[in-house]
Structures are given as C-alpha cells and as structure tokens.
Specification:
alpha/beta, Elongation Factor Tu (Ef-tu), domain 3, Rossmann fold, seven-stranded mixed β-sheet, four-stranded antiparallel β-sheet, 8 helices, 16 strands
C-alpha cells in the first residue's frame, strides 16, 4: 500500500518519489495535489502530483526537506511505504489555448509547474518558462522543463547559472520582447507577490498556485484560508490556483510566518 517504487535525488534537499497509488493515478487531473502523512502523529503535508501513470498505477511527487515531517519523507527509500496518502485534492488547472504563456517558477515551485507546462503545451500554447533559484545547485527539473517549453530563461540570485537576478527580471525581459496572454506563477509567497505586481503593471492576466499551510485538505480546519478580493477562500477546496491580482499576499505571508 502506497509503496515507493522509485526514488531520485534532485538536489541536496529535494527528492522525487514515484509511489504506487492506482486509484489516485486514475482520478488525478493537472494541478491537483495529495496530502501525505508519516506515522500516527506526523504532520499532513500537501504535495502536488507532478505526474501520474494510470497503466502502472503510480503517481510522482517532489518533496523538499524543510522540517521534521518532510525530512522523514525525504529519508524514505524504494520499497518503503507511506502511511497515509489522500487525494487527488483541489481544483484542476483550467487548460485552454491562451496563446503565449509565461510560466514563472521559483525553487521547488518548479515541481508543481511542470504538469501545467506539459498540459498547456499539449493544447497548443507557446510556453516561455522562467526558472529561478538562489543558486545553480537549487535549479531542478531543467531538462524536463526544456522539453515542454518553447523558450527557457534561467535566473539565479548569485549569478552562478543563467542570468544574475530574480524571477521578475526574467519575466519582465520576456514581457518587453513579445505579447504575453497569460502568466502562471508558482513559488515562495513573496516571489508570487512580486510577479503579480509586475504583471498587473503590464495588465497581463496572472494565475498563482498558492502554497499555504494545510491540515485536513477538505476545507474544515480553515488553516489554508486566504483573502481573495476581500473574500475568504480555502486553498484546499477553492484552489490551489487563484487570480493572482486578487490575492492578498501580505496577509498570506503573515499567516505563513505565524506558523514558524
């Protein structure tokens, strides 16, 4: 049950796990996620389903070691089993032919962006991906992203790879070069906030996939609530994707920091 079929180390603190979960694999749609829990007293961690294979009955998730529970998941090996795996959860990404899409992703946000890029490319969109991280060592899935992107721009804070700068630098560079019909952004909350500010300036519709704290994943606990155009929304059932220009990122960041 929920056995790990394959494990791949992507960087010092990021691993990719292929897990046997036939029912989830069959039901999963682009943009949806699972909640993973290890042990009786473990935390419930939401993780995007990066890929699913109905034939093999497997799903793929990518996990970053940022705390006790995620460290435990990253420490699992092939043949180990995950105690609780619930999903698919959340609303699926609306896949359509928009035209030219900029996908601005930062750090491990590249993982949930990959299935969206694949799906959007499949229906005929031109995909320009901005792949950003603090250093070269933290860039993940570059090969996979390139396969489904018409163009890729890599930025690193320290200039160790690609262009020295932030994800917003790469995004604005693209905006100035051609007409953009849609921007999708996934990454740290502060990054998505500034991508949203940038695209609002240029009047480009923008979708953000939010990464709030979750507990039950069904809208009962309220831990994942965010303000969207002044209304309370729950990321687990109303999202995870929202119109970025309507999200109160400052409030979201305060709530995320409160859990620290």
């Amino acid at each position: 049950m929920n056995k790990i079929i394959k494990k791949e180390i992507l960087s010092d603190n990021v691993v990719k796990l292929k897990i046997k979960a036939p029912l989830i694999a069959k039901a999963r749609k682009t943009g949806q996620f699972v909640i993973v829990k290890l042990g009786k007293n473990g935390e419930r961690i939401p993780l995007t389903i990066v890929d699913a294979n109905v034939r093999s009955g497997t799903i793929t998730i990518i996990v970053q070691d940022v705390g006790k529970s995620s460290k435990g998941i990253c420490a699992l090996n092939e043949g180990d089993e995950i105690d609780d795996l619930v999903g698919p959860l959340g609303k699926a990404t609306h896949i359509a032919n928009y035209g030219t899409i900029v996908c601005a992703c930062g750090g491990v946000g590249t993982a949930p962006m990959l299935p969206i890029i694949k799906a959007m490319k499949k229906v005929g969109n031109k995909i320009i991906t901005i792949l950003a991280a603090k250093t070269k060592d933290l860039i993940i899935l570059e090969k996979e992203i390139k396969k489904f992107s018409n163009k890729i721009i890599i930025t690193t804070n320290d200039g160790s790879y690609g262009i020295k700068g932030l994800v917003t630098d790469g995004t604005e560079m693209v905006i100035k070069e051609e007409k953009i019909d849609l921007c999708i952004t996934i990454g740290p909350a502060i990054m998505m906030k500034y991508v949203s500010i940038l695209t609002k300036k240029y009047k480009i519709p923008t979708i953000a996939s939010l990464n709030t704290i979750m507990i039950d994943g069904t809208g009962m606990c309220g831990a994942c609530r965010v303000s969207v155009e002044g209304e309370n929304k729950f990321v687990c059932v109303d999202g995870p994707e929202f119109d970025a220009h309507k999200v109160n990122f400052d409030e979201m960041i305060i709530r995320l920091n409160a859990y620290k």
